[in-house]
Amino acid sequence: MVRRTRVMTMNVLAPQYADGTARRAVLARELRRLRPDVLALQEVTRQDVAALTEDGWYTAPHPRWSADGVGAVLAARAPFGPVVTDPLQVTARTVRTDWCGAVAAQLPLPEPLGTLLLVHHKPSWPYDYERERELQALAAVRLADQAAGRPVRHTVLLGDLDATPDAASLRFLRGLQSLDGSSVCFQDAWSAVHPGEPGPTFSPGNRLVRDGDMPTAVDRRIDHILVRCSAHGASLRVSSCERVLVEPVNGVQASDHYGLVADLTLPDHPPGRWAVQQ
After folding, report:
1. pLDDT value at position 278?
2. What number is the average pLDDT over the span 137-165?
3. What is the tens place of the pLDDT at every residue in 166-184?
4. 276 burial level (CB within 10 Å; 0-12, 13-18, 19+)
5. Cis omega before residue 112 (within 30°)?
6. How many CB atoms are located within 10 Å of the residue 142 CB?
7. Other C-beta atoms within 10 Å of 6: how many?
8. Domains parsed from the chain with CATH numbers
9. At residue 186, does pLDDT exceed 90?
């Protein structure tokens, strides 16, 4: 019987920067320690994806990759069911962010948890592309609706969304505003466990941010794990949500982003029903 799943997202910084070999070794050790069931990684190479496959992961790569071979991948410890993708080419400007995209994959798991729908969403990254991120958030939700079938019970959207919780794209996903006449609601895993805490995942406290191509960056929480809600709330309880690989390991900072890991469990009784009175 399966009642819980552990999901993780992390932008791992392309390996051509800051001793990628050492950083990938730190990441591999952390994955073995954390033992996530679902993994969404950004700024990976085809070699990274092959290494995951060799380690027993089932993978669903994103639909677009940069000219230098960088992209994103969704991975799981169990085989995926149907998988659909969207390159998120929503305006003429998105051609400049050549590895944005989304993957939606069914993940059949044993009862009572049942089938998850996983949406690995990677919108355009530039600070001034929030209009694109709004349209891409709409596209990701439409992709999720396209991919959802009768067996899907829970939908989890995760990734480096390049937007803070107060951005329009995140406000839409969190059910705080509508976009283009549409509305949806996902529960933010970090806020569910750490209400009011900033929890930055991209921070100048990280040496690789200070040394990187965004030297004026301020603290931003832009990496997210979100659980879709129905009329009566999220279908899964967020029992834990923590940042990982915040500190260097033996002097090696794994990435310019921190990772995010959440444990998702079935609630005591399904949303929309009262508990059985004894």
Report:
1. 58
2. 93
3. 999 999 999 999 999 999 9
4. exposed
5. yes
6. 15
7. 18
8. 4-265 (3.60.10.10)
9. yes
Across residues 78-96, what is the average pLDDT? 96
Q: At what angle do helices 46-54 and 20-34 cross, to 10 degrees?
A: 30
Asked if 147 contacts 110 with a C-beta cutoff of 8 angstroms, the reply is: no
Classify the C-alpha dihedral 194-28-47-19 as positive or negative.
positive
What is the spatial distance between Cα 56 and Cα 159, in angstroms, rounded to a whole number?
21
Euclidean distance between the first and the last CA atom of the chain, given in angstroms as a whole number: 24
Residue that is written with structure tokens 């509508």 in the block: 178
Using the Cα atoms of residue 79, residue 85, residue 88 and residue 90 in order, give the sign of their dihedral.
Answer: negative
pLDDT category, 253, cuts 50, 70, 90? very high
| Order of strands across the sheet that contains 38-45 | 58-61, 70-76, 38-45, 4-11, 259-265, 237-244
pLDDT in tens, 6-17: 999 999 999 999
Count Cβ atoms within 10 A of the Cβ of residue 168 and give its class: 0-12 exposed, 13-18 middle, 19 or more buried.
middle
Following DSSP, what letter does each residue of 29-87 receive, concatenated?
A: HHHHHH--SEEEEEEEEHHHHHHHHHTT-EEEE-S---TTSEEEEEEESS----EEEE-
Residue written as tokens 């050492």?
Answer: 22
Residue 44 to residue 52: CA distance in whole angstroms: 11
pLDDT of amino acid 151: 74
